[in-house]
């Protein structure tokens, strides 16, 4: 038995082991048995902020060894698929927004799609009611995974061979890594669901409690990653891995077929771009609502003197809440996969429309979602984000997800990875809230091959065409509001990167008509909002924001959220 010593040093956890040497990352730069958590890195050459220290360290090791930000983003995601099974994945999907060193901006959609056998009412009973949990847990909740297709598309802009980028993940899965206290608690709380939603034993079950310092080994996952290394995307979408997925589906009444897997493609999209006070915001277009919501919210407040109201002042929070309310009302009605539904994109982001939308905003008086409706005239939060930048001016903002924590809770037998429960992001029935309490309608109804509407908002902010911020967060429907607040906090209120990331967040999504706030949200502001007429509801933490800011001297300031084991590294 290995022996581990756990020290608490400020916010850093330090694991110590005397018997192992560094085994992963280029030149063995990363030791999965002895690592610390670093919340901030100010560096000159390259930086990564992600949900897990080992993943951030793998990304930096890749850049140190000749890779660029795209290489690092691929390697970091693969490492997260091993060390952050809550949301890092190969059984889910994601979105990438990037800025290349030549100034080109890019957006990649590797969102899951509905299997060919999916149908509009597949989660309803004979009486037309939503069957609780069916789109969230187990085999039927899974969409066709997009992550591996997305990683191979990302390779278009990478410099190193894929085999080098995936090797750290293979090592981490095969030889294991030491888990933190938070991870042990998370795995312990998952055990009952693992039992319920799996047809074979998983690496995450061991009969006794997980403890900080235990080593988690994932042999099946290592073998799956080796098949991907050796056969490319076909190592996932065809051959043995595909067969294992389909066998798993058959054992658990799922509907993903070999043909669904083989025909999946990731899609390059035109980034959703707009300006805010001289900055260019580069965001994700449909099927994520992220870029459009950010555009709507930022334009709705742009002509208001928000900086004079003050950071987290009742007036500033109210203004932002009212912008959030209006944008999310439009999300519910008009947004969905634009390949399947005609999203009125131009009208939704028209300056005059957004100005008109705020006409009934009354400072000091709560708005109402009974009155604010979708505005056009008729015509789980377990996701994970990583931000990467390199010395050549490439930057990559990636948000990926399984949807709920550990997705559908179903691990593909013999292949070792969790399947997503992304089908819940569709609207199972108009007006019935999903996992995030969000409602939708026709635009986001289920159809074979369609991609479910997302809120993920990987974002790059440019100043004079050069990278200024690389930002994003998990958090389901709270993602766009957290990114909105983080950017406004830095641009308008002049907050430090740490204060913008760590500061209390709030969220309004039209329905329910409530302002959700974190525990640390100031009491005086809560009372002021209540006096205005708002219902203020305290909830758990909102998001885990990862920001890289380019400082005036050109160096990079990477800050990882303190709401989790998130970690910022650089060199
Ligand atoms: N599954 C969360 C999202 O895509 O918004």
TrEMBL record:
GO biological process: glutathione biosynthetic process; glutathione catabolic process
UniProt PTM: Cleaved by autocatalysis into a large and a small subunit.
Signal sequence annotation: 1-21
Ranges in a coiled coil: none
Pfam families: G_glu_transpept
Pathway: Sulfur metabolism; glutathione metabolism
Keywords in alphabetical order: Acyltransferase, Glutathione biosynthesis, Hydrolase, Signal, Transferase, Zymogen
Source organism superkingdom: Bacteria
Active site annotation, chain numbering: 383 (nucleophile)
The keyword Acyltransferase appears for this protein: yes
Subunit structure: This enzyme consists of two polypeptide chains, which are synthesized in precursor form from a single polypeptide.
Protein name: Glutathione hydrolase proenzyme
């Amino acid at each position: 038995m290995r022996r581990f010593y756990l020290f608490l040093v400020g916010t850093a956890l330090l694991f110590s082991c005397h018997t192992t040497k560094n085994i992963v990352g280029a030149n063995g730069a990363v030791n999965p048995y002895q690592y610390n958590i670093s919340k901030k890195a100010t560096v000159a050459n390259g930086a990564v902020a992600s949900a897990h220290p080992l993943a951030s360290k793998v990304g930096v090791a890749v850049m140190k060894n000749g890779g660029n930000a795209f290489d690092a983003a691929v390697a970091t995601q693969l490492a997260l698929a091993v060390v952050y099974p809550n949301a890092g994945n190969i059984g889910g999907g994601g979105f990438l927004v990037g800025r290349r060193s030549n100034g080109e901006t890019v957006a990649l959609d590797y969102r899951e799609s509905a299997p060919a056998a999916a149908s509009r009412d597949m989660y309803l009973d004979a009486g037309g009611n939503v069957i609780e949990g069916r789109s969230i847990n187990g085999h039927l909740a899974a969409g066709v995974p997009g992550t591996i297709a997305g990683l191979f598309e990302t390779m278009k802009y990478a410099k190193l061979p894929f085999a080098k980028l995936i090797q750290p993940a293979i090592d981490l899965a095969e030889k294991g890594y030491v888990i933190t206290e938070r991870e042990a608690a998370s795995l312990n709380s998952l055990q009952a669901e693992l039992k319920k939603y799996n047809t074979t034993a998983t690496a995450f079950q061991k009969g006794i409690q997980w403890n900080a310092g235990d080593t988690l080994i994932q042999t099946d996952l290592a073998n799956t990653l080796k098949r991907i290394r050796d056969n490319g995307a076909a190592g996932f979408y065809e051959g043995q891995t595909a067969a294992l997925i389909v066998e798993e589906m058959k054992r658990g009444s799922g509907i993903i077929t070999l043909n669904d897997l083989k025909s999946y493609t990731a899609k390059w999209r035109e980034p959703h771009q707009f300006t805010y006070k001289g900055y260019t915001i580069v965001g994700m277009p449909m099927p994520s609502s992220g870029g459009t919501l950010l555009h709507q919210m930022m334009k709705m407040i742009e002509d208001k003197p928000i900086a004079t109201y003050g950071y987290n002042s009742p007036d500033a929070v109210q203004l932002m809440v009212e912008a959030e309310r209006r944008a999310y009302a439009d999300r519910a009605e008009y947004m969905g996969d634009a390949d399947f539904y005609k999203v009125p994109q131009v009208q939704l982001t028209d300056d005059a429309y957004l100005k008109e939308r705020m006409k009934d905003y009354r400072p000091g008086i709560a708005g109402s979602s009974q009155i604010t409706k979708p505005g056009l005239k008729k015509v789980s939060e377990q996701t994970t984000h990583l931000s990467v930048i390199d010395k050549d001016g490439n930057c990559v903002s990636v948000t990926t997800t399984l949807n709920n924590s550990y997705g559908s809770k179903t691990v593909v037998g013999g292949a070792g990875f969790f399947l997503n429960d992304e089908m819940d992001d569709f609207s199972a029935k108009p007006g019935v809230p999903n996992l995030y309490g969000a409602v939708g309608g026709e635009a986001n109804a289920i159809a074979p091959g369609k991609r479910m509407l997302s809120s993920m908002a990987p974002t790059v902010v440019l100043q004079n065409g050069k990278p200024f911020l690389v930002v994003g967060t998990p958090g389901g429907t709270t993602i766009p509001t957290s990114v909105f607040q983080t950017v406004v906090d830095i641009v308008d209120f002049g907050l430090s990167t740490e204060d913008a990331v760590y500061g209390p967040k709030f969220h309004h999504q039209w329905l329910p008509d409530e302002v959700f706030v974190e525990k640390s949200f100031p009491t005086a502001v809560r009372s002021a909002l209540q006096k205005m007429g708002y219902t203020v509801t305290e909830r758990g933490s909102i998001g885990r924001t990862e920001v890289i800011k380019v400082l005036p001297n050109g160096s990079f300031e990477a800050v990882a959220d303190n709401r989790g084991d998130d970690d910022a590294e650089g060199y």
